[in-house]
């Protein structure tokens, strides 16, 4: 066995110390990674919720600012693809290319977005009047979930008055 001469200090790490440090780091990483994944998924739901709320508030603000009716529809009649905000410039009553004010697309395919007016689920289709009121007969609710089950979802409620509310901790899963 090698012995150090007296008065000479040890430099560096031994192989055992290095292996022990790597083992401790591995355990810490194994604990942290699932929490990090949950944080990323929660942030995606929050970001999608904020995009939808922003689009609904933008439609109301533009209707009031321009003193014209602004239409809000699902992209391709599917709420999970996003929202189309447009103003009927030629008074045809239907969307024409170039009439869009904003197209808000949902980029994350793991998001499930279900829109309902009252109890009837379907595509989003309503108008915002120049006074900020919608033509909705009942409250529009938009449930946003991802691929997890549990209380991770969010609900956006758009009242007939044009007021937008959000709720967190909505149960997601098969029944959404």
UniProtKB/TrEMBL annotation:
Keywords: Cell inner membrane, Cell membrane, Membrane, Methylation, Transmembrane, Transmembrane helix. It is found in: Cell inner membrane. Belongs to the GSP H family. It comes from the Bacteria. Its main location: membrane. It is a single-pass membrane protein. Signal peptide: none annotated. The keyword Nucleus does not apply. NCBIfam families: IV_pilin_GFxxxE. This is Type II secretion system protein H. The keyword Membrane applies. The chain crosses the membrane at residues 12-33. Residues 49-162 form the General secretion pathway GspH domain. It holds the Pfam family GspH. InterPro entries: N_methyl_site, Pilin-like, T2SS_GspH.
């Amino acid at each position: 066995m090698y012995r150090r001469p007296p008065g000479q200090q040890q430099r560096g790490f031994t192989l055992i110390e290095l292996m022990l440090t790597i083992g401790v780091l591995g355990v810490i990483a194994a604990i942290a990674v699932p929490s990090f994944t949950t944080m990323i998924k929660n942030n995606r739901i929050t970001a999608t919720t904020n995009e939808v709320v922003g689009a609904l508030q933008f439609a109301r603000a533009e209707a009031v600012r321009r003193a014209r009716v602004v239409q809000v529809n699902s992209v391709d009649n599917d709420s999970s693809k996003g929202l189309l905000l447009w103003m009927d410039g030629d008074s045809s009553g239907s969307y024409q290319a170039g009439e869009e004010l904003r197209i808000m697309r949902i980029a994350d395919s793991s998001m499930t977005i279900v829109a309902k007016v009252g109890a009837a689920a379907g595509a989003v289709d309503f108008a915002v009047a120049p006074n900020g009121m919608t033509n909705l007969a009942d409250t529009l609710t938009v449930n946003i979930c991802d691929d997890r089950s549990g209380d991770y979802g969010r609900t956006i409620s758009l009242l007939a008055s044009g007021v937008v509310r959000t709720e967190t901790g909505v149960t997601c899963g098969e029944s959404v």
